[in-house]
Amino acid sequence: MSKMILGKLLALDVGLARIGVAVCDPLRLAARPLTVIQRRSRRDDFAVLANLAQQQEVVAVICGLPLNMDGSAGPQAQSVRKWAERCAYALRVLLGTPLPVIFWDERLSTFAAQALLAESKQKTAEDAAAAAVILQSYLDAQQLGETLDFGRIELSK
Q: Which residues on adjacent β-strands are paired with residue 60?
């Protein structure tokens, strides 16, 4: 198993109208909601994501994968995988270096985000909170040494 490189991660909860974005600290201990991107065009969306990745100095992107409850990948998961591949190529061009895109199971993240928001009474956007739930789930699994793999995109320079 390769040694894990520390650094901030950007997590995405990709929806048709919005993209929830979360980030974690460089030691990867805690995730927090960052923002919600109102989707306009792929070009605009990728430019905003590249800007956020640069500002936050992230080393990889965690992309929530909307699997079916039985764990299978339906049309929505395939659509997100295709979008993420385009995103990876766009980020490589916009940033001048590739960022790995790691897929992570996002089942129930919206429900967990709703519960979290109801509990905290914060006005954080639900999509950004869902991205934080996805990222925290990923971070927790990494801390426990879980080897779940939902796929990744690694482009060469």
A: 9
